[in-house]
Amino acid sequence: MTSRHERFTGWQRLLHWVMAACILAMLFIGVGMVSTVKPLYLTLVSIHKPLGIAILVLAVVRLALRLRYGAPSLPADLPEPMKLAAEGSHYALYALMIGMPLIGWGMLSAAAYPVVLFRGWHLPAILRQSDSLHTLLWDAHFYLAFVFFALILLHVAAALFHALVRRDGVFETMASVFTGGEVAPAE
Amino acid sequence: MLAWLCRMRQHYLALNNLLLNNILKTLRCLIVGLEVCMAASHKPPLGSLALIAIVIGLGAAIFAYTAGWFSPQRLTPDRLVAAFAPPTGVALGHRRNHAKGICFTGVFEANGAGSELSQARVFARGQYPVVGRFNLGTADADAPDATVRVRGLGIQISTPDGQQWRSAMINAPVFAVSTPQAFYELLRASHSKDPDAMKAFAAAHPEFAKFGDWAKNGPWTGSYAEERYNSLNSFVFVDGSGAKHAVRWSLLPVAQLVAVSADELAKRGPDFLEQEITQRVASEPQRWTMVVTVANPGDPTADPTVAWPADRRSIEIGALTAQQVQAERDGPCRDINFDPTVLPSGMRTSDDPFPAARSSVYAKSYDLRTAEAKDYPRSVTGAKP
Fold first, then answer.
1. pLDDT tens for each residue of A96-123
2. Pairing of strands B286-294, B314-326
3. Which of A97, B128, B186, B298 could cross-link with A59 by S-S, CB 3.0 to 4.6 Å?
4. Contact A24/A152 with Cβ under 8 angstroms?
């Protein structure tokens, strides 16, 4: 532990870890549901839709918090390409957190499926019915899911790289959800 | 109380730090171990990098497993859809099964009797708009009408609360097989080059005999309007008190059934059913009575090859009227997926495994055909997509 950094605020950390669980669940549910014809399919679909909307809402809140409170600065000695990668991937992750649910919602709308969140609770269509729009959005939803997962793997790899290899305190800016105080020195 | 809460928070924070430190320590122990193993104790920290690679690789592998990439035997919607493909090739832009069809619009008039079984709005007395589709159970969009045994009806009923009830029914009195897996095997057998494949399938699936008997000996008719259409799958209705009722439903034609031999039908034009229903509805709206059959406790609800005994309670809940017929190419049913799991609140799927399988496969078929719209072009420029 060589350098001290300010950390993300408590709400930001809480949202980060809650959303991490939600988004990972979402991606696994997504690839799982489209690869089975078992009754589990319906269960997974019925989780996928409300969870996606929940992620959309949380992502908007999180973006607002990020704009309000910002993020701890990266270590000064971090090489420039890594800084660029960090910033670029964070933009991409925000875009996907907000974009994927909207694309899914639009895709269902363009196919004239009712967007059911819970029994009897449904969202309005946000697009007119259109086979070409449906195809475009379906392709986007499908391929971006893999991009999303790849980005998350990269994000995890980078986080572990900071925690284990560089030991530069970046991991600790987001780690530990509830502690308000300092993280005790590890060694 | 406040003091207690503060104390609990202290404990919690201590625990949290302990956990975090231990996790980090454990990770570092692991890394040290790896470093020793790899005899690379100095920079670059190969152990840490190896650990990261393992975490990422494992994550990717579990993801791929979930997606079915390591499971060539898993029955996926893609495989089931592919199994429908006829030897002549898929009908691009069309449904992968029940590919030939014609749209209609009309109304469902509920008499209110269904409210006893389900709180769904669609059972409250009233009239609700319907988009429907008469169709043939074939993957060939150009099949001559007389060559297809199974005739179907898809409906979408919309209620003012924004909910929908979609159902796709067929004229067979029972379904051909008990499970989606068996259905997949049936498709494989029916497309097999092995002349004994179907015999072998029938021998392995005795439940197929009832459907086979209907296909062979059941009456043929000259009109979509004279057919009875059955849900075959069971569903669960939930009434106002929360009580559940296992049900199946059927549309019974008001038109008189006139049996016509298959040989006689073969002499008619390739699209005689579509022409007949178009003219018939134009001259007079066609009606069906909707009847819901309620299972007794213990009746098989998971197996659509088994009809429930004839004495089971049946309730007439309303009537469907087809008022206008439109060609599918530009018609309102074209881009609707008659997914039988699109149900209003007050209706649910049962332990019957088919609606889930149908939903997953219909969605795949829908994704494919909407992407192929250029292969089934609309005839009217500016037609509502």
1. 999 999 999 999 999 999 999 987 789 9
2. antiparallel
3. A97
4. yes
Separation CA B281–CA B268 (nearest Å): 19
> Which residues, including other chains, have CB under 8 Å from residue B225's CB and lie 6 or more apart?
B253, B255, B277, B280, B281, B286, B322
Contact B238, B119 (CB under 8 A): yes
d(CA A33, CA A35): 5
Q: Is B98 in the active site?
A: yes
Give contacts of A28 with chain B, Cβ < 8 Å. 62-63, 66
Identify which of A28, A135, A149 has the shortest CB distance to residue B370. A135
Token output for B168: 């796709």
In CATH terms, B79-375 corresponds, of 3.90.460.10, 2.40.180.10, 2.130.10.10, 3.40.50.300, to 2.40.180.10
Look at the block and give the residue holding tokens 């104790």: B41
Distance CA A44, CA B341 (A): 13
Report the gap between the CA of B356 and the closest CA in chain A (Å). Answer: 5
What's the fold here for domain A10-73+80-173?
Fumarate Reductase Cytochrome B subunit (1.20.950)
Q: How far apart are CA B46 and CA B35, in angstroms?
A: 6
Q: Do B285 and B323 contact (CB within 8 A), yes or no?
A: yes
| Under 8 Å between Cβ of A71 and A8 | yes
Count the Cβ atoms, other than its own, within 10 Å of residue A128.
11
CA distance A70 to chain B (A): 25
Residue among B25, B55, B162 whose CB faces A156 most closely: B55
* ipTM of the complex as predicted: 0.91
CB A168 within 8 A of CB A162: yes
Is B353 within 8 Å of A39 when comparing Cβ atoms? Answer: yes
Among the listed residues A174, A11, A176, A13, the one whose alpha carbon sits nearest the alpha carbon of residue B19: A176
Q: Which of B42, B98, B191, B205 is catalytic?
A: B98
Write down the domain spans for chain A.
10-73+80-173
Question: What is the pTM assigned to this prediction?
Answer: 0.89
Alpha carbon distance B294, A16 (integer Å): 49
| Tens digit of each residue's pLDDT (9 = 90 or more) over B231-273 | 999 999 999 999 999 999 999 999 999 999 999 999 999 999 9
Dist. CA B163–CA B140, nearest whole Å: 32
Indicate the length of chain B as a whole number. Answer: 385
Q: Read off the tokens for B185.
A: 């095997």
